[in-house]
Write a structure and sequence with these properties.
This protein starts with a strand and ends with a strand. Helices cover 0% and strands 52% of the residues. The strands form two sheets. Strands 2, 4, 5, 6, 9, 10 and 11 form a seven-stranded mixed beta sheet that branches. With 117 residues, it is mostly beta strands. Strand 4 (33-39) and strand 5 (46-51) form a beta hairpin. The chain has strands at 3-7, 10-13, 18-25, 33-39, 46-51, 57-59, 67-72, 77-82, 91-98, 106-107, 111-116.
Length: 117
């Protein structure tokens, strides 16, 4: 089992930055692909960014050039650096992990990000 705990959310003004962290425990997540999802009120949970065990990354079009996903395997932690934040980035952000396939197997509890205009 992998336990994931997100941190770093909060309230920020438009144009500001936040860095989210996802600390994993229970197992080393070196071989896992990691992802960040977000869910705004009344909307579906969507993938924001993903990073494979080899370090390849992918991003939703809406965050390309503004968000950066990274991982520090020595710390068993994944990060999401969010710059130039917009009010439409407001959501609960979730960290997720998978060994393979399309579906993520493990999820954190989420951290709220609120961007004021």
């Amino acid at each position: 089992q992998v336990q994931l705990v997100e941190s770093g959310g909060g309230l920020v003004q438009a144009g500001g930055s936040l860095r989210l962290s996802c600390a994993a425990s229970g197992r080393t997540v070196d071989p896992y692909s990691m992802g960040w999802y977000r869910q705004a009120p009344g909307k579906e949970r969507d993938l924001v960014a993903g990073i494979t065990s080899g370090g390849s990354t992918n991003y939703a079009d809406s965050v390309k050039g503004r968000f950066t996903i990274s991982r520090d395997n020595a710390k068993n932690t994944t990060y999401l650096q969010m710059n130039s934040l917009k009010p439409e980035d407001t959501a609960v952000y979730y960290c997720a992990a998978k060994l393979g396939g399309l579906r993520y197997d493990y999820w954190g509890q989420g951290t709220q990000v609120t961007v004021s205009s």
